[in-house]
Specification:
This protein is mainly alpha-helical. It folds into two domains: 78 residues, Glutaredoxin; 113 residues, Glutathione S-transferase Yfyf (Class Pi), Chain A, domain 2 (Up-down Bundle), CATH 1.20.1050.10. It is 56% helix and 6% strand. Strands 2-1-3-4 form a four-stranded mixed beta sheet, covered by helices on one side. The radius of gyration is 17 Å and the shape is globular. Bound molecules: glutathione. Glutathione binds next to helix 3.
Amino acid sequence: MKLIGRNHSPYVRRVAVALQLAGVPYDQEFWGLFSDADLIRTVSPMRRVPALVLDDGAVLVDSGAILDYLADVHGPGAIGLPATGPDRRAVTQVVAWALACVDKMIAAAQEKGNRPPELIQHDLVGRIEAQAQVGFAELERRLGGDWFVGGGLTQADATVAIMVSFAGFFAPGLIAPGRYPRLQGLVERVEALPAFQATFPR
Ligand SMILES: N[C@@H](CCC(=O)N[C@@H](CS)C(=O)NCC(=O)O)C(=O)O
């Protein structure tokens, strides 16, 4: 089994973390989106990551679809997903909020990074970043204790920690120090775990 992409991508990293949590052996090609575009296309024709190459040669794309596959084969609990019921709904909703924050960070960066300075639509950037702040604030509100749901790590904690860590290097300043103390505490707890140490972007 081979994972394609660098853990700087929060989507790639959530797959890497899920593989680690489930104890699935895998190799990883740390190909860069731009520097290794041709290599990525040989596996993922739209040049998107993550892609997961299975042992029979099948290629899975999209982190959500890949996690669904892992949950199907290894059981949802193996990747920190409650099997059913209110806990599962709560976890998948937190994951959805966290991934929406990632989408907004990337959208703002694309607007800022791909235009001459005089053509950047600052009002649009402001609106997008405000949407991300709504997402962060909602996640801060939902984190009542050490973990989002139940007494231990779930995909909710994993995805939020990956997202907040990503914000730290991808959109520095977007999360002002001290603004979301519960999320910050979560990141410190989660990033210390082996699956996260093993996948920290380098
Ligand atoms: N919904 C997808 C999003 C994947 C995604 O946006 N990956 C980025 C890297 S962070 C990418 O490949 N971007 C290149 C592109 O879309 O052209 C997932 O969950 O895997």
